[in-house]
Design the sequence.
């Protein structure tokens, strides 16, 4: 090992959360080092959010165009898959991170490429791909932002089946003839939407009671109906018990509970995420390896006044935008503590990521899109709130009918009857993802229903759904 190099802050993991920690701590005048074992920019930039949306956008644009009179006949052919893949590759930088490195250099931070591990209190050991060793010492904070990886269940035959995870599903160079997808959450439904549009015959196998289980039940129902209409097979309440691959390049089969066998050319296991904490030295500071990292309301690890965990690894919210939000706040926390300044840790204060638990937004880019923020009805009731669900058929909104012939969608707002504020909202329909930020403001701001009545939506837009929901609530 070389002599330790000292920084104010050392960040372990260069995904979106880690990058935002670097940005905020450097803006506060702290010296910062970033350690990354793969590509700076992380899972989101190369194998998740960015490439998946590049694959999905042509599919959704074509679907929208086919619902517009005068345009539908012009877009009846197949997608140009080569152009779609080229566009995806452009947005991933052809899986090169030089642009991210240039940005980090420009703000005066330092990047160490290699595998980083905690090396006791306030220290990180880095082993580079070339075998070089470095010890980094942090005056004020070490931040763990190593993210998650896909879970592949330990089924009989799974190792030899070489299944896709989200990484292969977003970076594949050609569409498989038949794609089996095991799972019912976001990765499963988005990749089903993309690859069905790109020419694959898709079969979705979901073990639970419906798709998108973290949203209101109608969201998964509408997405499932649309996938079936697009030609995909969607099966709910089924369990995979074994997997068989026929030779190195042959087809892959799944054996369902009860013995039924389904065959495909590729198999995507979209069955959840697990923290990338198994080999980052947590044991050197008395923490369990391979587990989610518990944090307090400032994302600091209890019992370690120098250690923070930001983004997926703390299990508060496994979403890129929330990891970046946490990082912006934690950057301010570290800067304030380094300066000896007091913290504002009240709910919605400058130094606590309250939105992770009260106003968490998510958009799912299926056809139709599904977007939600805050609590579902079931979650609100379990939390002890007295609520009313207000529903409206989005096809009855003028702006929706002009947006697309045969528009189908549904909206719900969850009202806290004691305070008359929104606890949550869900929108499902073409273009619905662009509605969710207004709902996020209403939930995060705890805007009274009476005040929302004066937020007049422009006519004729899909956002007129807000007026219809409020009218329905008033009766």
Sequence:
């Amino acid at each position: 090992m070389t002599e330790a190099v000292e920084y104010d802050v050392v960040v372990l993991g260069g995904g979106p959360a880690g990058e935002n920690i670097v940005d905020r701590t450097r803006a506060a005048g702290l010296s910062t080092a970033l350690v990354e074992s793969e590509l700076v920019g992380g899972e989101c930039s190369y194998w998740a959010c960015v490439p998946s949306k590049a694959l999905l956008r042509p599919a959704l644009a074509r679907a929208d165009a086919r619902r517009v009179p005068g345009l539908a006949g012009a877009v009846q052919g197949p997608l140009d898959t080569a152009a779609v893949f080229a566009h995806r590759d452009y947005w991933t930088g052809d899986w090169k991170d030089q642009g991210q490195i240039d940005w980090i250099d420009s703000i005066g931070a330092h990047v160490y490429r290699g595998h980083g591990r905690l090396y006791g209190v306030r220290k990180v050991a880095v082993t580079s791909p070339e075998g070089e060793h470095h010890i980094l010492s942090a005056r004020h904070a070490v931040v763990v932002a190593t993210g998650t990886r896909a879970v592949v269940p330990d089924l009989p035959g799974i190792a030899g089946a070489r299944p896709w995870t989200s990484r292969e599903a977003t970076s594949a160079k050609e569409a498989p003839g038949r794609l089996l997808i095991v799972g019912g959450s976001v990765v499963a439904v988005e990749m089903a939407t993309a690859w069905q549009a790109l020419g694959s015959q898709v079969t979705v196998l979901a073990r639970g009671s419906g798709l998108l289980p973290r949203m209101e039940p109608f969201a998964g129902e509408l997405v499932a109906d649309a996938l079936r209409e697009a030609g995909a097979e969607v099966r709910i309440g089924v369990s995979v018990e074994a997997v068989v691959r026929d030779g190195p390049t042959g087809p892959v089969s799944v054996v369902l509970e009860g013995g039924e066998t389904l065959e495909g050319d590729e198999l995507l296991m979209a069955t959840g995420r697990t923290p990338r904490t198994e080999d980052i030295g947590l044991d050197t500071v008395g923490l369990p390896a391979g587990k989610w990292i518990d944090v307090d309301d400032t994302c600091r690890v209890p019992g370690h006044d120098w250690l923070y965990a930001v983004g997926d690894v703390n299990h508060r919210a496994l979403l890129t935008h929330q990891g970046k939000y946490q990082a912006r706040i934690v950057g301010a926390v570290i800067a304030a503590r380094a300066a000896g300044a007091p913290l504002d840790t009240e709910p919605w204060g400058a130094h606590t990521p309250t939105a992770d638990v009260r106003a968490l937004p998510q958009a799912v880019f299926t056809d139709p899109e599904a977007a939600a923020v805050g609590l579902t009805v079931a979650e609100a009731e379990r939390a002890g709130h007295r609520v009313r669900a207000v529903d409206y058929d989005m096809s009855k909104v003028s702006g929706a009918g002009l947006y697309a012939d045969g528009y189908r969608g549904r909206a719900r707002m969850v009202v806290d009857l004691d305070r008359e504020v929104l606890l949550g909202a869900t929108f499902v329909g073409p273009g619905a993802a662009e509605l969710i930020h207004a709902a996020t403001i209403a939930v995060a701001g705890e805007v009274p229903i009476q005040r929302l009545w004066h937020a007049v939506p422009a006519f004729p837009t899909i956002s007129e759904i807000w007026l219809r929901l409020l009218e329905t609530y008033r009766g």
